[in-house]
Amino acid sequence: MSLIDRDRAHLWHPYAPASPRLPLWEVEDAEGVTLRIMDDDGARHEVVDAMSSWWSAIHGYRNPLLDAAARRQLTRFSHVMFGGLTHEPAVELAERLVAMAPADPSRPALERVFLADSGSVSVEVALKLAVQFQAASGRPRRQRFLALRGGYHGDTTGAMSVCDPVDGMHAAFGGLVDGQVFAPRPPAAATATREGIDTWHDMVAGLARIHADELAGIIAEPVLQGAGGMHAYPPECVRILRDIADRHGLVLILDEIATGFGRTGELFAADHAGVVPDILCVGKALTGGYLTLAAALCTGEIARTVSSAGPLLHGPTFMGNPLACAVANASLGILAAGGWRQDVRRIGEGLACGLAPAKAFDIVADVRTIGAVGVVELAHPVDVPAVTRAAIRRGVWLRPFRNLVYTMPPYVSTAADVERIAAGMIGAISEVHSGIHEGVPA
């Protein structure tokens, strides 16, 4: 029995049914930006990973600096409980995160770090922090959140509650999550007008005013909404959220799990707007895709206020895992060297050029890029298995969803890699959704 058949017999994969016909490819090796995979028929393929393993492997696979950091930590200890104990990798990571976080001399700094297991868990911690902060400030009724339509913040229960309640992935769980307050999706960056931004501002401000006495905070993915539709919006909208939060005494939570560490062209997407949140959530690329780790950073004011009333009521078993922290420090060290900015700019320019021909396809609703992100939005849902197979034949690993064929390549991708990714996306769309544009090579 093949490994793929053994998998299908027992494993359950993300966002998929437990099915003996689930499309799967076995990864045999990975190095740099290349995955070596095998299909059901035993055929082997070398593909460029255009997904960075769900946006996390920004430095590629088998990175020598990250490998070395993991090996060094393994010679000391791979894990120890974080309750009552501490260790050098966690302390160094907290110091690094605080030093690189968005900052503004006129605002409280992000200076306290809670280490979490995953991005979803960091959102759970952020929501709890906001509620406990309001309670400790004498406002115990403030337990709801103002979130944005089109937003996605994770799959755990609290995180689900602030995801898009209609078009998101969690509409089936309405009875499981508390009802939050949802503002309209911000206008698209490419087409936003002064009138459109002002109208959006008025709607969000009105909702905040009506519900202020019951809201603990506002949560948003700054500048780019990820799994909710790869929707880029103007940085001014983030500044609007900051102003509304200040006006009503709300905690502003910015979810940078997908956008943090350079993906949008700034170290954090909030930097496009010059906004410092009260709580910042990071994850995914934090360890360069090696191990699961996330963090919630908060201001000293929030930490002191919550602590004045008691402990933060959260404590993961693997909190502050030393192995993950050591690799994260190495990953952040690579970013600190500064080359990521040129890499992201180069990738973005390559994607903008390489994906431009898709604008002529009748079935394509939009083509957009921001930083090292390239998106082709179709007018109807993507045939995911067929587009995936067509891309593999062109030497590219893609994972489309809904009506989007998109890429977030590793920062170490060369110009040739980016060209291959863009050509693979266009060719796969052309082959699968045939008849969309004459003369497009398959």
From TrEMBL:
InterPro entries: Aminotrans_3, Aminotrans_3_PPA_site, BioA, PyrdxlP-dep_Trfase, PyrdxlP-dep_Trfase_major, PyrdxlP-dep_Trfase_small
Record EC number: 2.6.1.62
Record text on subunit structure and interactions: Homodimer.
Keyword S-adenosyl-L-methionine in record: yes
Pfam families given in the database record: Aminotran_3
Coiled coil: none
Pathway(s) of this molecule: Cofactor biosynthesis; biotin biosynthesis; 7,8-diaminononanoate from 8-amino-7-oxononanoate (SAM route): step 1/1
Protein name: Adenosylmethionine-8-amino-7-oxononanoate aminotransferase
Residues the record lists as binding pyridoxal 5'-phosphate: 119-120, 255, 316-317
The family this protein is said to belong to: Belongs to the class-III pyridoxal-phosphate-dependent aminotransferase family. BioA subfamily.
